[in-house]
Amino acid sequence: MTQKILSLTLVSALALSLPAMAHAACVAEYKAKRDNPLELHYDVAQISGPCTIRNARTQLADQLSRRGLTLLKVLSVSEQ
């Protein structure tokens, strides 16, 4: 009886943790630039939080500005 309860508890815990493990990473495709001299960049970056262009724009603008780049456009976001 105790073994059945333990097995059932283990199966329940595993079933509840599967959605968290299956959560996909969000990837944003973007264009950026650097002035003097002009450099254009195209890249892909992983973002956290909601997989939306708005969220990607916010995160990427902060990350890129620290590298001396200006975000021009987020082309797309997708869950991988």
Describe the overall structure:
By secondary structure, the protein is α+β, with helices and mostly antiparallel strands. The chain has one domain (23-79). The chain has a three-stranded antiparallel sheet with strand order 2-1-3. It is built from two helices and three strands. The chain starts with a helix and ends with a strand. Strand 1 (26-34) and strand 2 form a beta hairpin. The protein has helices at residues 2-21, 53-66, and strands spanning 26-34, 39-47, 70-79. The chain is elongated. Keywords: Signal. Residues 1-24 form the signal peptide.
How does the SSE layout of this entry go?
Layout: H1 2-21, E1 26-34, E2 39-47, H2 53-66, E3 70-79
Antiparallel strand pairs: 1-2, 1-3
Low-confidence stretches: 17-21
Q: Please give the count of helices.
A: 2
Helicity range: 40-55%
Tell me about the largest β-sheet. 3 strands, antiparallel
State the total count of DSSP E strands.
Answer: 3
What kind of oligomer do you see? single chain
Give the strand content: 35-45%
Distance between the termini: 43 Å
The residue-averaged pLDDT reads 83
Total number of domains = 1
**Strand order, biggest sheet?**
2-1-3
